[in-house]
Amino acid sequence: MDFTEFEKKLNINDSPHFNHTVPELNKLIQQFMLEIPFENIDVQNGVPISTAIEDIYDKVVTRNRGGFCYELNGLFKAYLDAKGFETIQLAATVHAPDGTQSLAGSHLTLAVKIDETYYIADVGFGDLPMQSLQVTRNKDVSVHDVNGEYRAILKGNQIYVQKCENRQWVTQYEAPFKDQPSEAFTEMIHYNQNHPDSIFVQRLIVTKPTQEGRVTMSNENMTIQKQGNKYKEAVTSKNYRQLLKHYFNIDEQVVRLEE
């Protein structure tokens, strides 16, 4: 597959050769996350999600959209594989702030092997750093990002991706350290875009990191996190398209917000 336009979108078209190093991987993660938002507009609009790489490429690159984990990490994996990186797919269970968990294995995340060490390289989750996380049993290894401190801890054969909040490590998701075929996510993709209990069906989520924090849009609010401060603006039927365009460069109708 030709990724020329994808590389132009990410401003990495001047890097034709890869040495498959962690700094290179981190640069790709950063550029992807800064340019391509996590969003579930199609789910909100009842548009079926395709995980065919050609369809995701068209949506993200040609139509200037984002997507959720199956789409974004699926596209990123295809690109990394094409460039010679060694990647695996993991089926993760998300831990919600209220202590509940998603259906087991409902989040698709990636790990990349570099010099016999694996690194979480997830561009399809709402709150992760713009760089990889080394999978390690050493609890002192972490990554500092504008939005916090993160780590990926291996306990037994389970990976725990965590964020430090109020001096406590909080698990964001966990996954068995086992490569999963794309077919393993079919049931979960159907659930997350159709079931009334799915958070993606219930609520609009559009988010991406910035160099100074993060911008996030829901049905009710546009939240701007900047250098540790948080600002909110009400989302209405009159302003949501301007907000989508200004903060995410997306020009798309959200049917529920038109009501």
UniProtKB/TrEMBL annotation:
Claim: Transferase is one of the keywords in the record: yes
Q: Which Pfam families match?
A: Acetyltransf_2
Q: Does the keyword tRNA processing apply?
A: no
The cross-references to InterPro entries, in alphabetical order and at most eight, read: Arylamine_N-AcTrfase (IPR001447), Arylamine_NAT_domain_sf (IPR053710), Papain-like_cys_pep_sf (IPR038765)
Task: Cite the GO molecular-function annotations of the record.
Answer: acetyltransferase activity
* Taxonomy, superkingdom: Bacteria
For this UniProt record, the keywords arranged alphabetically read as follows: Transferase
What the record says about family reads:
Belongs to the arylamine N-acetyltransferase family.
- The name under which this protein is listed is Arylamine N-acetyltransferase
Species whose genome carries this gene: Staphylococcus felis
Origin organism lineage: Bacteria, Bacillati, Bacillota, Bacilli, Bacillales
